[in-house]
Specification:
Elements: E1 17-23, E2 26-32, H1 44-52, H2 56-62, E3 68-71, H3 77-85, E4 91-94, H4 98-110, E5 116-119, E6 130-135, H5 143-154, E7 157-168, H6 173-183, E8 187-195, E9 198-205
Parallel strand pairs: 3-4, 3-6, 4-5, 6-7
Antiparallel strand pairs: 1-2, 7-9, 8-9
Length: 215
């Protein structure tokens, strides 16, 4: 477990190195390191998610104008893209892996993104709800742990808010979509996009009630 990207404190060499990746419409230099998710570049699933997200102007016109959450941020590509595209909105990058958090903070600083906030899960204010959740969720933590993670965070969607989750088809995208639809009757769940063996699951909170309660 100590070497897995979803460990709290990886034991592998954490020396940072710089790579160049394409994010939010241009090449950007970021720091990565061993012991985090996809340290050598942009993960294929993450690339699909970023490519398939609706145009930022459309998102702002159809959903609530509130904080964006990157759940399981790794070194920060989803959060960085959101922060570049939405400079007027608060972006939260949440990650259990301390090395990932350190790298994401460094990347946010070097790219001039002061509204990108990096936090461990228990550091996010309990009263905070999110207009959007964007995530390449950690499927390899196991089904039970993944379900617990989604129960914790999908309930934080604001009324009218939406989650976009990218999952490989061979790792259970279809079954996860069905589980979310069954588990959260307050969410409208669809397959938003499909590309290169990955599905983007779209879950929208249509109700205006005070909370989303899992079954």
């Amino acid at each position: 477990m100590a070497q897995h990207y979803f460990s709290e404190s990886p034991e592998s060499d954490g020396t940072p190195r710089e790579i160049e990746v394409w994010l939010a419409g241009e090449a950007r230099t970021v720091r990565t390191a061993a012991g985090v998710f996809s340290p050598d570049g942009l993960d294929r699933g993450t690339a699909v998610l970023l490519r398939e997200l609706p145009d930022p102007s459309l998102l702002e016109s159809t959903g609530p104008d509130g904080p964006i959450l990157d759940l399981g941020c790794g070194w920060g590509p989803i959060a960085i893209s959101a922060a570049v595209e939405h400079p007027e909105r608060e972006v939260w990058a949440v990650e259990i892996n301390a090395r990932s958090r350190e790298l994401t903070r460094a990347n946010a600083s070097s790219l001039g993104l002061p509204h990108l906030r990096v936090a461990a899960p228990d550091e996010v204010p309990v009263e905070l709800s999110f207009a959007e959740i964007r995530s390449n969720p950690p499927i390899r933590i196991g089904k039970a742990a993944l379900h617990d993670l989604l129960r914790q965070w999908l309930t934080r969607l604001a009324p009218g808010g939406a989650a976009y989750l990218v999952v490989a088809k061979h790792l259970g995208a279809d079954s996860l979509q069905r589980w979310i639809a069954t588990e959260f009757p307050g969410l409208e769940v669809t397959r938003f996009a499909r590309d290169k063996g990955f599905h983007v699951i779209h879950a929208v909170r249509r109700d205006q009630g005070s909370s989303i309660t899992p079954r």
